Amino acid sequence: MSEPLKAIVMAAGKGTRLRTEGVDLPKVLRQAAGAPLLAHVLSQLDFLPPEDIVLVVGYEGDKVVSAFPGYPHAFQSPQLGTGHAVQCAEGALSGFEGDILICSGDMPLMSSRAYRQLWEQHTREGNACTLMAGVVDDPGAYGRVIRNEEGGFARIVEAKDCTEEEAKVREINAGVYIFRSRDLWRSLTTLRPDNAQGEYYLTDAPIWLVKQGERVGVCAACTEEELLGVNTVEQLQQVENILLNR
Length: 246
Description:
Layout lengths: L4 E7 L19 E2 L2 E2 H7 L9 E5 L3 H7 L5 E3 L6 H7 L10 E6 L7 H14 L3 E7 L8 E4 L5 E5 L13 E10 H8 L15 H8 L4 E4 L13 H13 L1
Parallel strand pairs: 1-4, 1-6, 4-5, 7-11
Antiparallel strand pairs: 2-3, 6-10, 7-10, 8-9
Helix pairs in contact: 5-6
């Protein structure tokens, strides 16, 4: 690739809906198929050395840092959304001028193949940002990827904000991105918590870049299975079953 790459893995969540069993662990340390969720994610980022992967930790973050001592980290406290999580990692990436991959520590099924395909398309197209998308039968609560008349990226619409027509869109945002570093940091300064949750959403960053005339790409590289995240005990069991059968 023409540009160097580093990564930010968002790993700050408490996992409130996973605590029904009384397990006092951050979400990314919950086990599936004999290993923490975060370990599965990091195994698929093996094309990067650990020193180039920044873990953004929050709830009981010291436990995450202790479990993965070879990785630089940043603390997110309080936790004010995905955009805020990435902002917290800026200091750990100070001076870096390449591309930055952003992904979630609770998506253990996303493959190295999908990450690499995202990076390849981002580099080939010379994008300011490229986001991962996937097509699903039932988009449910996922954010929809809305394309313009030319088939390019227009915006992301959260499920609760969709019009009747937008709700029918089956291409959804995977929450995985690659940004040119300079475009990432300048777009993050524009984020505002103008929503019911009072949080800073990373999804607003590519929308802002498009408005500035920058090129934002969509890489529909991941399978419906790879899109699965873990928020509930049922999802944890589903993910474990898939990992065991791979």
